């Protein structure tokens, strides 16, 4: 892997985020610096040269705060401290500075909808203190909850306490929802933003960004009724306008996790005085189908254009089935509702498609997010039932495999214990027996590897020059477009090889051309005219 030949300096332009390549770090599974089986900040710091050589512009860290880990760190007990399993606040500050020295910015994760049930506020609320007003406590309807809302993880969104009252949690019972109508909740989160901007972070990713505000009446849910009682309520925009003012003081940026089918309402979050970007889930969940991918791309660009915001392109993340596995299945789309154990997968086919998808996503206008291990072509892992930790599995009654399969610790060194993730203890989630075959050190020495493909494509990305996307005529099943004069991306999803347009240089290819110089099925190229 080696040291980069030189440290890149962060782009000083205020709009660096518009076309950045941002790498998602799930700290618990990235690299184990102290050998205890859990990834940590020491492990990340040791691997910064690898990330610099990969060529990414920024790192997005999933929550690294103090947490009981009932939902992988998205149950936060203290936003101003690093969980001891990961390190210390001083070490986080060193990591932010060291990454910046290598030309890499840092984005932290904020979870404003809820906190951990171990958070001081909620513990005080359980004792009957005034902190109860910071949450949604209600009396029930006899033996029934206050309303019929369902948890995102399955089951009711309410838990009853011994005193007979109920509290709201749109996720797990260990994640009580905050009441964003209370000014103390707003003040606290504004202070948290300043705390991390003061420590040099470049941006903040906002978890479940459309869920914070609730109808104060807490009515039953009625399908199709507008406004929704807890999704995409108008009150949210005032919250994010106040946050934007803080970010602008520091030159920071926001990226929101906003799952909304209504493209016009989605775009409202990206107005110039609100969030800078939001994740594009229509592309991520789209099947491997040329027409549907083109539609997803066109609709994404169209919904961002009126507000002047850049699109984001994501193939998978810490919640979603890994790309190699998903693209190797009969149903290549993604839907939480259809996840199931034992789904047949052709990994060779999935890998071929994932390589092509990498070149497609990196060629599109906007920012690209790469989830750790995607650059290694990692598949979804099968987790033994007695090792599954994700609450989605338990709350589904055991039918949902959960999300642990995409969170397995990374393989770094093929011949080291636990594939180089950590030297002593077994990783917190078991690695598959063949994980060494995906190890970063082995791939770094192989010019045909997935890692080599990502490195080359990211290094070449500046040739696209930030230009707009212009579609070119192409046969059915083939996507072809330009981003800059003389540079073309072609992706063949048809059943037969495709002729390439005239060109002087093949810049990068996801796989070899056929013997006649044509583009085989499930292959992508970047060409210079």
TrEMBL record:
Residues 24-407 form the Glycosyl hydrolase family 13 catalytic domain. The keyword Ion transport does not apply. Gene3D superfamilies: Glycosidases, Oligo-1,6-glucosidase, Domain 2. InterPro entries: GH, GH13_cat_dom, O16G_dom_2. Pfam families: Alpha-amylase. One of its GO terms (molecular function) is hydrolase activity. SMART domains: Aamy. Belongs to the glycosyl hydrolase 13 family. This is Glycoside hydrolase family 13 protein. It comes from Streptomyces shaanxiensis.
């Amino acid at each position: 892997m080696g040291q980069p030949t030189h440290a890149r300096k962060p782009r000083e332009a205020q709009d660096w985020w518009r076309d950045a390549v941002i790498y998602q770090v799930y700290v618990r599974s990235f690299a184990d610096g102290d050998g205890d089986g859990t990834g940590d900040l020491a492990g990340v710091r040791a691997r910064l040269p690898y990330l610099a050589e990969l060529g990414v512009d920024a790192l997005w860290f999933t929550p690294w705060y103090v947490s009981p880990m009932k939902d992988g760190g998205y149950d936060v007990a203290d936003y101003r401290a690093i969980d001891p399993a990961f390190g210390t606040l001083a070490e986080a500050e060193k990591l932010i500075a060291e990454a910046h020295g290598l030309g890499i910015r840092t984005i932290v994760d904020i979870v404003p909808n809820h906190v951990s049930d171990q958070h001081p506020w909620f513990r005080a609320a359980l004792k009957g203190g005034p902190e109860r007003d910071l949450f949604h406590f209600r009396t029930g309807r006899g033996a029934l909850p206050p309303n019929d809302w369902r948890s995102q993880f399955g089951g009711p969104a309410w838990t009853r306490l011994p005193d007979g009252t109920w509290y709201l949690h749109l996720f797990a019972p260990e994640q009580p929802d905050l009441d964003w109508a209370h000014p103390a909740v707003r003040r606290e989160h504004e202070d948290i933003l300043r705390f991390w901007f003061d420590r040099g972070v470049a941006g903040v990713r906002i978890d479940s960004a459309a869920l914070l505000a609730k109808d104060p009446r807490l009515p039953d849910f009625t399908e199709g009724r507008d406004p929704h009682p807890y999704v995409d309520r108008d009150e949210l925009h005032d919250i994010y306008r106040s946050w934007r003012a803080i970010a602008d003081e520091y030159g920071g940026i926001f990226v929101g996790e906003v799952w909304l089918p209504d493209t016009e309402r989605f775009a409202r979050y990206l107005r110039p005085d609100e969030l800078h970007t939001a994740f594009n889930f229509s592309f991520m969940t789209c099947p491997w189908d040329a027409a549907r991918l083109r539609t997803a791309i066109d609709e994404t660009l169209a919904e961002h254009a009126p507000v002047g915001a850049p699109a984001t392109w994501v193939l998978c993340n810490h919640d979603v089935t890994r790309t190699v596995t998903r693209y190797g299945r009969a149903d290549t789309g993604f839907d939480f509702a259809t996840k199931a154990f034992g789904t047949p997968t052709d990994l060779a086919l999935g890998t071929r498609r994932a390589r092509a998808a990498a070149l497609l996503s990196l060629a599109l206008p906007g920012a690209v997010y790469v989830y750790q291990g995607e650059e290694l072509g990692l598949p979804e892992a099968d987790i033994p039932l007695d090792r599954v930790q994700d609450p989605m599995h338990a709350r589904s009654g055991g039918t949902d495999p959960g999300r642990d399969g995409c969170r397995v610790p990374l393989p770094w060194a093929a011949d080291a214990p636990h594939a180089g993730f950590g030297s002593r203890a077994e990783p917190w989630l078991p690695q598959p027996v063949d994980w060494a075959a995906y190890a970063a050190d082995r791939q770094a020495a192989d010019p045909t590897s997935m890692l080599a493909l990502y490195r080359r494509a990211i290094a070449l990305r500046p040739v696209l020059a930030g230009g707009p996307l212009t579609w070119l005529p192409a046969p059915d099943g083939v996507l072809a477009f330009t981003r800059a004069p003389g540079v073309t991306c072609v992706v063949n999803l048809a059943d037969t090889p495709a002729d390439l347009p005239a060109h002087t240089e093949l810049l990068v290819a996801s796989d070899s051309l056929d013997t006649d110089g044509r583009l085989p099925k499930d292959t992508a190229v970047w060409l210079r005219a």
